[in-house]
Specification:
Blueprint lengths: L4 E4 L9 E6 L8 H10 L1 H8 L9 E5 L7 E6 L7 H20 L4 E4 L11 H18 L6 E6 L2 H11 L1
Parallel strand pairs: 1-6, 2-4, 2-5, 5-6
Antiparallel strand pairs: 3-4
Helix pairs in contact: 3-4, 4-5
Bound molecules: ligand AR6.
Length: 167
């Protein structure tokens, strides 16, 4: 089994082929990690996002990273948590489709933000489990492809949850 790295801090400072943004359906920016990524990347990110005409929940789109240390930004749209079984499927799709897109364009390192766990209200522990399970499934199915996958926790609680899940 390949490993999953857990890192703590501000994803906008992190260097990788791509960081994964927790965006909304418009892809035109917002608060939380999305706002931080747009601020750090600069206005050309919004210009490119405008050409994409949004993104359905569970899917992923890619742009350049502009002023970010990361070369690309993968934008995925998590579910707004409503306590339904479809929430977990949608969240899993975010992780799976982001990795599929990263592979399709030939990337080899990706750092995920904790999709849906802020404004969208997904309980952190369940979200961490979906993240780890889905990444491990993808890794098994793509064992011939080198991809460094990291989960970025913004706070200590999320960091400890991720650590527990990958143990
Ligand atoms: N680096 C890493 N993680 C961060 C950062 C950062 N700089 N800032 C926040 N987080 P959220 P969502 C963590 O609310 O729940 C936006 O307005 C944060 O602690 O950013 O998917 C979008 O436009 C949390 O664990 O995303 C959408 O409208 C995680 O990032 C909506 O919020 C996700 O929290 C999406 O909501």
């Amino acid at each position: 089994m390949k490993d999953i790295k857990i890192i703590k801090g501000d994803i906008t400072k992190m260097k990788a082929n791509a960081i994964v943004n927790a965006a909304n359906n418009s892809l035109l920016g917002g608060g939380g990690v999305d706002g931080a990524i747009h601020r750090a990347a600069g206005p050309r990110l919004l210009e490119e996002c405008m050409t994409l005409h949004g993104c359905p929940t569970g899917e992923a789109r890619i742009t350049h990273g502009y002023n970010l240390p990361a070369k690309y930004v993968i934008h995925t749209v998590g579910p707004v948590y409503a306590g339904k079984t479809s929430d977990a499927h949608m969240l899993a799709s975010c992780y799976y489709n982001s990795l599929a897109l990263a592979k399709k364009v030939g990337l080899h390192s990706v750092i995920f933000s904790a999709i849906s766990t802020g404004v969208y209200g997904y309980p952190a522990e369940s979200a961490a489990k979906v993240a780890v399970d889905t990444i491990q499934k993808w890794q098994k199915e793509n064992s011939d492809y080198k991809m460094d996958i990291s989960l970025c926790a913004y706070d200590g609680r999320m960091y400890r949850l991720y650590e527990k899940m990958v143990a």
